[in-house]
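Rotation project, supervised by the postdoc (A.L.). Task for the rotation student: set up a whole-complex structure prediction and record inputs and outputs verbatim in this book. Inputs entered:
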Amino acid sequence: MSQDAMPWRWRDYFLRNGDDFTRFWEEFLSEKKRDMLFVLGHGFDTRMCDCANVILGIGKEGTRDALVIEYDEGPQSPSQQYQTQRAANGTQLKLLFNGRGKIGTRKIQMFSPDRRRIGDRSIANGFMNIDEFLSYTDVVVDISALPRGLYFPLLAKMLLLFDQGQHDRRHPNLHVVVSHSTERDDQVVDEGVDEAATFLYGFSAASFESEATRDQPRIWIPLLGKNQRLQIERVYELVQPDEICPLLPSPASNPRNADDLVLEYRELLFDRLRVEPQNFIYADETNPFEVYRQIMRSVLHYQQALRPLGGCKAVVSAMSSKLLSLGALLAAYELWQWRHGGDRIDVGVGHVDAQGYSLSCPVPAATTSECYMAWLYGECYAPSK
Amino acid sequence: MRDMRNPFRLQSAESIETDADFLRLFGPAVLDLLPDGATRGKPLFIRSAPGGGKTSLLRLFTPSVLQTLLSLRTSDPFREIFAKARSLEVVDDTGIQVLAIMLTLRRTFPALSDLGLPDVRVNRLFLALLDARIVMGALRSALVAKQLHYPEDLSHITIDALPDDPPIPDLDLPCDGSHARAWAEHLERAVCDAIDSLVPSGNFAVPGHDCLHSLRLLDAGAIKVGGVSPALRWLVLMDDVHKLTALQRQTLRATLLEQRSATSTWIAERLEALSREELLANGALEGRDYGEVVNLEDAWEKTKRFEKAVTGIAERRARMASDVAAGAWAIGSFEASLKSSLDSAEFEKTLSSALETVQGRVIQLVATHQKYREWVRARTEFDGTPREKLVAWRALEILIERDRRKSQMTFDFDLPPETLEAREDSSVRAAADLFVAAEFEIPYYFGTAHVANLGSFNIEQYLKLAGDLFEESLGAALLRRSPVLSPQRQEKLLLDAFESRIAELPRRAANGRDVLRFIEAVGQFCHQETYRPNAPYSPGVTGIAISMADRDNLLDKKFLGKNPAYSRFAEMLGTSLAHNVFQATLDYNVKRGRYMVLYLNRLVCMKYRLPLQYGGFREKPLRDFVGWLERGYTSKRGEELPL
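Outputs recorded:
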């Protein structure tokens, strides 16, 4: 599978942040009337409404509806201590959309009756049809307050629905936005990390684990972030990779970030997981499409090199910021889609959930968050006539 | 194998790349925990907390590992493993006698329950997928056993028709190996595709199975290589069974029971899988039909072989490090890198000073209690190392205190030395050893024996601790210093290991904060009870107990539903048991009744300066412990030694 022969769906991409984020939406919403649906999670993260606040603040014509994903992590979840903040976020959301459009909710069942995690399957199965989006010109998915275990399958499902409905002229644009702050991310600590990792629904979870292809080499690309040692161990136990290619954020606002991560995980990476130093890959801390490219390049390279062994299976794990994790999602989705034509790569997203989260610093010192937007589907990707 | 700087960091069986390296690192003592006839007949349930060594145990029996063992059987360190494997009748000098198929059940099966299908349908698909994987595993194992290649040599395999009904759905017998593989792969693919589909169609082509047809094939000896059965018997090894849903585990047990297969099945599961009910009820399955249960931690404790087993494992790993290093890097023995004695010039002054202090206290006491003069005289004649003398005098102090507490009403006759001898048993000396270590800040938790005890019968826990110690030795060797760790340094490293492990509990485990809170309460309580001047529970208290009646309340859903504080406690206890924070012993008889005893993990004991022996525990009503979880433990003043 030659890299040059691949379409690479997001080789050319659209990404805006900060002032450019605001400028883009000002111009975009000024072009014509746009009916927008915001899909966002209801959580305690104070960044929950940042992006909606900017976009709605621009005004302009068109519907502005919201679909709020409600998820309950359980009464024992450490997140329960932040109910006040969560309620405040809900109030802020209502105020933002007041008079602009409707606010709908979708409750996601996070656990089965026997306490297995099913949030990934629930959220994906909560959207069965593109019809519910066709009355909008733009769907904006805000992942700022959505756990990774939910927004990965959500976006995978939405991309699939949009792809399946691509011949319908009404199909909307799909944007993903996130309020990103490295400092704030560092303050959010996972608690009660699940004993075992799983493959997220919506990729090749079951196929990855098949007995028939168990001899195929397994490549694991974990995107590294701070305080994820336990998660790395757990996903490693799940994947049992033959080759590990950790992805480090570099360049980064802290130029020593990559070094600090290697130091933090030195013993784990080199003594226990036996990572080869030459296997590290790097991507810009603020560009998920760079992550996407690096992952695609790496997986396709291994697929080519291991063709005599029947190719390889690939696992990506996003243990980094939500912004970078988007790149992992896009790569996993595109590689998984290729399983229906030509060569096939079984791709899994190795993930481990937590009972909840706590904040090492409850009140953010100052808002250093910045809104990012990635345009994934729609007008800017239409083939030129 | 790639160079391994610190082989102790290889903690899971899966991460050891080659079979030869796996065997080199494998500690054979675990094989002694298996019951007689383990590879024949009834299912065997192997349970432990995470890191207990279940997967390593299963992996040993896989054909590729046994083939490697056969080829290396005449050399060290493989000789011992081969001898034990032969005594289990899985190999002999001619080859593999029991052919194993290893499956890990955490893969794919649990997701079947999320397809939105009725339970009956899910069960059928579960058995069908299990059949597909067992058949593929059998084909692979059969070829490996005959040193053929999978899948290239599948044409060498034939599968005979089954002697009885029902036929296997969609598999026409007799057939060759390739045909069987295609059948199994198709079945597996259909199930996996349905699970993975983001747009479920509701149409499901796979009919499912009513029983494990694969076991029927194995029982009938239908699988042949070159026309001959590849081994005497088959053994199906199922790992990670705890990952199945409760319904699937029930279906598996019921199917095995109903089919009464001649093929032995080993079922390895973590304690966490057991429901709270099963954990608190010790998951009893023994009996005529179900087969035996081996709880690895319990088995290690009962057989008293854990220390020897892990010491052997440690030596193998240390040798492996020295195999890949030389000169200053090479540390060939783990035991040799740990100083195990305080009898050195370094501690002479401390021990002498401590001895003087203790002797002074005793003599002062005896000045007003003449009846102990003979005891003191006998003790003065005691000869030993400075530490032995110190412990002996401290033991005397404890015994005097004990006697004083119970003899207020007796006459003050001199007690003869024989009474001292009679009352001074090993538990008193152990308490004395602990007390002097705490009082005079003398290292206590050091040496290979104590490190083994701190493993708390869990191999992974032991390897982590040993790995930290070995890492320190490696660093010292690199800096051209002695790699032998002093007792103080060992104790410091072990305490650091505890702190980092315990600090992670809220992250590692659901209800982790509650577990932490309760450990703190129990630790403080045990410390107070241990350090009483008369050491009534010598060598110390390292556990708590509740009555079996109280234990029953923790299993009573109605009771828990009405009492949220008890429900919270029950959840916390379930997590604690699953993660080996506590070890439970049921139906412990003492004169006041039957109790469930909960011993602290030995690593926790170290934090609260408790002894590492088992034995001493204090029972209390359940409501007291529930209160500790809610409000913490309040220590009583006055009774504890001022340390």
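Student's summary: Chain B has a mean pLDDT of 88.
Supervisor addendum: Chain B touches chain A through 50 residues (CB under 8 Å).
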